[in-house]
Amino acid sequence: MTVHQVPDTMPRPRDNPPARRHHGLGERLVLSELNPDAVVDQGQDEGVPLNLITFGHVREVCPKCKQHLKLVLRQARVRIAHLLCSDCDSCFDAHYANGKPALTP
Ligand SMILES: [Zn+2]
Q1: For 20-62, what is each residue's pLDDT tens digit?
Q2: Spacing, Cα 14 to ligand 1 middle (Å)
Q3: 9 domain residue, yes or no
Q4: Do the domain assignments include residue 20?
């Protein structure tokens, strides 16, 4: 008796290219909260205000207070680019549904 089993890992036909090829815009971003201490160097300089340079608001909103988040790119006291909620001071990382980081090229 010969049974030809088709393995589950058969390659799929190549006639199914990824439908979305546009560059992020219009795609929902996945937010994951970051520890602000890991993102921003709070510094040892007591009394020196932390001046974050923000790059405008993004479409994504804070999951907690529904405020539009601000984009903060890497700068003197910022270790990683992130999205900041100025309302509750939460920091978020953002990536696309396919796992590609949205904030770092
Ligand atoms: Zn918030």
Answers
A1: 455 545 678 899 999 998 998 877 666 767 778 899 999 999 9
A2: 43
A3: no
A4: no
In a domain, 13, yes or no: no
Q: Give the Å distance between the CA of 57 and the centre of ligand 1.
A: 13
| Average pLDDT over the chain, rounded to an integer | 81
Distances, alpha carbon 86 to alpha carbons 17, 28, 67, 83, in Å: 40, 21, 8, 10
Distance 18 CA to ligand 1 centre (A): 34
Distance CA 31, CA 54 (A): 18
Could you tell me if residue 101 is inside a domain? Answer: no
Q: What is the value of pTM for the model shown? A: 0.68
Domain, as residue range, for 75: 29-42+53-96
Number of domains in the chain: 1
